[in-house]
Amino acid sequence: MSDLRNQALEYAHQNSAAYLQSLQSLVQIPSISTSVDHKKAIKETAEWLADRLRKIGFKNVALYPTAGHPVVFGEYIIDRPGRKTVLIYGHYDVQPVEPLEQWKTNPFEATVVGDNLFGRGASDMKGQIMASMDAVEAVIHAGEPPVNIKFMIEGEEEIGSPNLGPFLKEKAKLLAADVVLNPDSGMLAADFPTLTYALRGLAYFELRVYGPEHDLHSGLFGGAVHNPAQALAELIAGMHDADGRVTLPGYYDSVREMKPAEREDMARLPLNDDFYKAQTGAPELCGEKGYTAAERIGARPTLEVNGLLSGFTGQGSKTVIPAWAMAKISMRLVPDQDPEEVYHQFIEYLKLKAPPTIRWEVIRMSGGPASFTDPNHPAARAMSQAMETVWGKRPVFRREGGSIPIVSDMQETLGIESVLTGFGLPEDNVHAPNEKLHLPTWYRGIDSLILFFYNYGAQE
Which stretches make up the Peptidase M20 dimerisation domain (predicted)? Predict the structure, then answer.
């Protein structure tokens, strides 16, 4: 087995330039799932990935249609009793690139500058998909893979994976596996290999507040009509108390508290206030009283305003009382919180706090529960050992503040736990202008994935 490991690693090292070139080709396709204008690019990306799987040697490669964008599937199966099967998840869609003027390179030229590859999707998550495919290619080239491998790559993660749930139910037998390898996470730093064992869930809403039937002259009607923009601001301001706690009725009733040992582990992570201020550029931090920034991000629920719109926002002045106002509001949820319950808590808050001078409505946009994976799962141990071999230090285990709905969907629909890893860095500007991928870390990631397959396959 050690000879096969070494052969696979050597093959990956010899083909590192070709791996980078393939990644650049993939990043250059503008697979933006939020825009109908990029539907052709979405299909092109899916076909590109399917073709790559066929070249590696995968069978039963197909593009499965959904009500939205297709799912790419392929498998490399050796039918022998006792072999484990790893299902690798990924998404090939990317975020929009606006504001375009803030990019220093063309977001779809995949430009290498120093140790970094710049381009939309380089880190999230085309780089992670290609690291997985490159590792699998190296393992197959070395000889018989130690595990069976399946790929499932969707094209709608950046819009909430609306059609993946039905696909999982319909194709549960096809997707059967012992564990999911999900590289859609990231690392704390280039020298801190990281495994994520918990993800927050999400409940996303659009809140609309209505006042007069149409925009009004602020001189003729100001002081007599409740301004919807002001009413919305008042409602939002009341959603947190002075200690930074969310005030929705019953919001914390189901929140799973961290154990003392878990808080001690989190305290050892290199995530103090100075780290977050350096990452964000914020002058100071804020949040729920009694918890560190790392705890608030990884293990506590939140409520954030993602966008506001109302009235006249163009150049110059226009003195109006707007007829309506809108806010995009997201809530990050922790284990045991139910998105459906949170929706009703939101409605109850508005019933209690909204004045009779306005009308309001809530539109549910997307959501999903939090997920929690045992850090001692055999596959997690296999990945931890692989990272320790490559980086020369034990990886850190962390809770992550973001949401990956597919993790909880896999648990609920397929009964499969996920190993969450990835080789993106906090400074990769994911979802922002100048997204990048740190190539030395990416190459180390390929090595660690190669060793993961051998480690996991060798376990009893």
Answer: 197-356
Residue 217, pLDDT above cutoff 60: yes
pLDDT tens for residues 26-76? 999 999 998 889 999 999 999 999 999 999 999 999 999 999 999 999 999
Q: Are 350 and 248 in contact (CB under 8 A)?
A: no
Across 42-46, 198-202, 405-409, 442-446, least confident range:
405-409
What's the Cα-to-Cα distance from 100 to each of 90, 97, 105, 226, rounded to whole Å? 26, 6, 10, 38
Is-contact 187 438, C-beta < 8 A?
Answer: no
Q: Are strands 85-91 and 148-154 parallel, antiparallel or unpaired?
A: parallel
Token digits of residue 311: 């009235």
| Residue type, position 364, single letter | R
Residues 235-288: tens digit of each pLDDT: 999 999 999 999 999 999 999 888 888 888 788 788 889 988 988 899 999 999
Chain center to CA of 398: 15
Which domains are seen in the chain, by residue range? 2-199+370-458 (3.40.630.10), 202-255+301-367 (3.30.70.360)
- Between the alpha carbon of residue 130 and those of residues 62, 137, 184, 201, the distances in Å are 18, 10, 12, 26
Buried b (16+ CB within 10 A) or exposed e, 349-361: bbeeebeeebebe
Identity of residue 219: G
Q: Report the alpha-carbon distance of residue 399 to residue 408 in Å, rounded.
A: 15
- Which pair of tokens denotes residue 209? 């507040």
Closest alpha carbon to 95 in 84, 83, 103? 103
Q: How many Cβ atoms from other residues are within 10 Å of residue 37's Cβ?
A: 9
For residue 222 the two structure tokens come to 């100001």
Q: Angle 366-372-374 (CA atoms, 0-180°, nearest 5)?
A: 160
Q: What pLDDT is recorded for position 35?
A: 85
Length of the chain, in residues: 460
CA dist., res. 291 & res. 299, Å (int): 10
3-class SS of residue 91:
strand
Distance of alpha carbon 72 from alpha carbon 91, whole angstroms: 9
Q: Letter for the amino acid at 64?
A: Y
